[in-house]
Write a structure and sequence with these properties.
With about 160 residues, the chain is α+β, with helices and mostly antiparallel strands. It is built from two helices and ten strands, in the order H-E-E-E-E-E-E-E-E-E-E-H. The strands form three sheets. A five-stranded antiparallel sheet has the order 1-2-3-8-7. The protein has a three-stranded antiparallel sheet with strand order 4-5-6, with no helix packed on it. A two-stranded antiparallel sheet has the order 9-10. The relative contact order is 0.19.
């Protein structure tokens, strides 16, 4: 089986003061840098459908209403090398037109260039799913790709 699309084509990250976040058609990934030596018992992470809260050692690092809804039961967090917390959220709406413009409703927005690159990436990922025999991982896209690009589903094969 081929590697996932994001592994072959890279990710479009949005940098933040605490780390970065990025997205695929199905998931939102959050990487939070924490003090070296952090232990899992020092981490408090609450993942709800529309809300996220992360604290380390009693200090709130990230909290607020998510940009869009997620499947709460499928959200996970891991502590990697005792210095990075990786949170994975499963989007409820998984189409290319659902490109999150920010992580939280009023915080950590992608700048316009990054937002454009994210939308291009999700559109190419959609094309990849619709055409599994082709490799779009190195493709460039121009034209109408906002809201997931053109809809060819009504065309006859």
């Amino acid at each position: 089986m081929a590697a996932p699309f994001e592994e072959r084509s890279g990710v479009v990250p949005c940098g933040t003061p605490w780390g970065r976040w990025y997205q695929t058609l199905e998931e939102v990934f959050i990487e939070v840098h924490v003090p070296p030596g952090t232990r899992a018992k020092d981490v408090s992470c609450s993942l709800q459908s529309r809300h996220l809260a992360l604290a380390v050692g009693g200090r709130q690092l990230l909290q607020g209403k998510l940009f869009d809804s997620t499947i709460a039961d499928e959200g996970t967090w891991t502590l990697e090398d005792r210095k990075l917390i990786r949170i994975v959220l499963m989007k409820t709406n998984r189409d290319a037109g659902n490109c999150w413009t920010s992580l939280l409703e009023n915080d950590y927005a992608a700048d316009p260039w990054v937002q454009d690159q994210m939308q291009r990436k999700l559109t190419l990922e959609r094309f990849q799913r619709e055409n599994p025999g082709f490799d779009f991982s190195g493709a460039e896209i121009s034209g109408n790709y906002s809201k997931g690009g053109p809809d060819f589903s009504s065309l006859q094969k």
